[in-house]
From TrEMBL:
It comes from Castor canadensis. It comes from the Eukaryota. This is HERC2-like protein 3.
Length: 299
């Protein structure tokens, strides 16, 4: 990079930072940055150079000590990560990958929290995670139609069945795994149990005096957008799970190559897996992969 081009890039960056109202570490595109804002040209150059590698995966890889986890789970970081997890339209494969990585980062840093210091933050976050999970399950807002418009125009188009988990169920299973992990920790266990008990108690109260035979959940809660419905569905999902199909980011077992992580699923069903022991990626047919069981809730 010559001197003129470097100075031009720095000037553009400084001008952007002066006009942008987005706080530090909140701009997440293909990368997530960990450098704090600074006016130093040298710092801006380093930030520009490191854009290509400072990603959510990298941040998770350095969250190894309580001090690092505490720094990466400040209120502003949690707000940022929850925005990424919740996502926004249009929902794509790339956005799903970012959402999964954000959940994994939360799973890495939240166990470091001390209840005596962050009790209020922990309570709010538990409620927010359950609320998001309930909303996701009741609306399936991030799922796209299985048939594209061009396909629907064909006379002999047939409905397609998804052999792998959808966008919504993939993300929901990741949030369930996060809540189950937190539930296994002493400092989080009581808060999650309290929320679960409150939701189950509200269901019991709603069902009092109503017939119990051949009655569907919709008969008790006709309005699917009712917060009680979302809360109940989130609790039941954490207790019993949602979707056992193979999913992006999920663990699978291969008879020959062992255990691995699904890194890509193409529309034509080609599944890329990064195997743990081989440290390489291979494309495998669906019938050769078996999803590995997730952590169960010990309630």
């Amino acid at each position: 990079m010559n001197g003129n081009h470097k100075q031009t890039s720095i000037n553009k960056e400084i001008k952007y930072r002066q006009t942008s109202r987005i706080p530090e570490a909140t701009r997440l595109g293909a990368s997530t940055f960990v450098f704090p804002p600074a006016a130093s040209p040298d710092r801006l150059v380093r930030r520009e150079q490191h854009r290509s590698w400072c990603t959510l995966g990298f941040v998770r890889s350095i969250a190894l000590t309580p001090q690092a986890c505490g720094a990466l789970s400040s209120p502003r970081w949690i707000t940022l990560l929850m925005k990424v997890v919740e996502g926004h339209a249009p929902f794509t494969a790339a956005s799903l990958q970012r959402q999964i990585l954000a959940v994994h980062l939360l799973q890495a840093v939240l166990p470091s929290w001390d209840k005596t210091e962050r009790a209020r933050d922990m309570k709010c976050l538990v409620e927010k995670l359950f609320g998001f999970l309930g909303s996701l399950l009741t609306t399936c807002s991030s799922d796209v139609p299985l048939l594209r418009e061009s396909t629907l125009r064909r006379r002999r188009a047939r409905p397609q069945a998804s052999l792998t988990a959808t966008h919504s169920s993939t993300l929901a299973e990741e949030v369930v795994a996060l809540l189950r992990t937190l539930h296994s920790l002493t400092q989080w266990n009581g808060l999650i149990n309290k929320y679960i008990n409150s939701q189950l108690h509200s269901v019991t109260h709603s069902c009092v005096g109503k017939p119990s035979e051949r009655v569907l959940l919709e008969d008790y809660f006709p309005d699917s957008e009712n917060p009680e419905v979302g809360g109940l569905m989130a609790v039941l999902a954490v207790i019993g799970g949602i979707d056992g199909r193979l999913r992006l980011g999920g663990q699978v077992m291969h008879d020959e190559f062992g255990e691995g992580t699904v890194t890509r699923i193409t529309p034509k069903g080609r599944i890329t897996v990064q195997f743990t022991e081989m440290r390489t990626c291979r494309v495998c047919p669906l019938n050769q992969l078996k999803p590995v069981g997730e952590r169960l809730l010990s309630y």
